[in-house]
User: Which sequence fits this backbone?
């Protein structure tokens, strides 16, 4: 796990991280904690992470370099969706993102849509340049603390939620694991929901 660079993300020498409920969730070795800016510090009253089988919290986020375009999650019912929280400073994310590129190519024709939700606090142009260098072939959205709270607080990156065709969460993966650990819940998301009309073979 890479150390977080010194910046205004650190307050009085202490790094503030999100927690699930009242206690910090365990952080896998290959997950990186996002730094928190002064205006993004959580003070207690943290939303709980949505559970599998529950409707994915709806959100509308700005599309990176989309000239003001936004995207609403609930508008994608009928598709299987991966909501992948990431950031440019996250080294494990740099390994995982090419896997997501390949999985979007493989399962996109079956109704999969991956979205990268950037938790960066830098200029959009820098995020766009990073995504272009990686070869990202799926939309990147600019994350907010409100959306992070809706998904239980993001205390480590990468973190992915898998949503079926009816908009319900079927799984969640925290940290860098393996490409198969992402592909298996994608298959589950494609197969789930009353709107399922595609084969996952």
Assistant:
């Amino acid at each position: 796990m890479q150390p977080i660079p010194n910046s205004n993300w650190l307050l009085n020498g202490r790094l503030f991280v999100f927690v699930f409920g009242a206690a910090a969730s365990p952080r896998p070795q290959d997950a990186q904690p996002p730094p928190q800016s002064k205006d993004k510090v959580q003070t207690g009253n943290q939303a709980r992470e949505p559970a599998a089988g529950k409707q994915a919290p709806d959100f509308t986020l700005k599309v990176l370099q989309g000239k003001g375009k936004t995207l609403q999650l609930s508008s994608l019912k009928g598709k299987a969706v991966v909501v992948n929280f990431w950031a440019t400073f996250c080294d494990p994310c740099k390994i995982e993102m090419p896997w997501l590129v390949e999985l979007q190519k493989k399962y996109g024709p079956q109704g999969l849509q991956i979205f990268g939700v950037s938790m960066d606090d830098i200029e959009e142009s820098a995020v766009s340049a990073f995504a272009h260098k990686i070869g990202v072939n799926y939309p990147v959205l600019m994350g907010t603390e409100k959306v992070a709270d809706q998904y239980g607080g993001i205390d480590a990156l990468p973190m992915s939620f898998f949503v079926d065709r009816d908009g319900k969460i079927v799984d969640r993966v925290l940290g860098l694991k393996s490409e198969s650990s992402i592909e298996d819940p994608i298959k589950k998301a494609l197969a789930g929901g009353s709107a399922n009309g595609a084969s996952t073979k």
User: Anything to note?
Assistant: Helices lie at 91-107, 124-134, 145-150, 179-191. The chain is about 25% helix and 20% strand. Residues 55-191 form a domain with the Glutaredoxin fold (CATH 3.40.30.10).
